[in-house]
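Researcher: Good morning. I'm working through a list of sequences from a screen, and I'd like to move beyond sequence-only analysis. For each chain I'm collecting a predicted structure so we can compare shapes side by side. This is the next one on the list. No need for commentary yet; just the structure.
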Amino acid sequence: METQTLAQLFKTYFNANPEFIVRAPGRVNLIGEHTDYNDGFVLPMAIDRAVWIALSPRTDSQIRIRSLDLETDAAFDLHSLTKGEGWAEYPKGVAYELQKAGHVLKGFDAVMTGDVPSGAGLSSSAAVELATARAFATICDITWDAAQMAKLSQKAENEWVGVNCGIMDQMASAASKEGYALFLDCRTLEYQHAPLPKNISVVILDTSTRRGLVDSAYNERRSQCEEAALVWCKGIA
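Model: Good morning. Structure tokens for this chain:
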């Protein structure tokens, strides 16, 4: 979506121009499936699909977000966060983890939209989380530390939403660079930007198979991997 169009939609809902527009991309993984939560190496890259948030800060602790794609509104107070259901739990969880980490947050009015397909394995949830983190970092003068923001966003998904995802999705959204893949050590979160060959295109095929990590066997699979790793470590000790 063009930023001018997004700004106009913000004005439609809030009768004012937005002060900022932030974005966070989705990702595709080139090498390293299911190795992120096993502390391995992965090679994801950002894609040309993203989540955008147009926003203006408020003088209080209220967060008001209009989801343009879902045509629904969400509102919550930073000082009284409680778990609920639905898409708003992702930005709410990020706000909770940022405050828990010691960041002082202020409220904002926002409209959010994105073109990362939901349930397609392209990390639409991580894009929402990192776009939310970008929004808070922008209006609250928080220095952008990709690894820290990725870890806090992962905690939001693990502990607030309830999906025990690894760190790859959030790191790819937080640290990727155009024209490069992200070579990431998931144990240390050290990363390098690996240049992609010139004039190359990465094609993503849509199988039309949709998944939702919250209601899938993902958490069970991760638990099994952790158990297997523990047994292996005991075997070589």
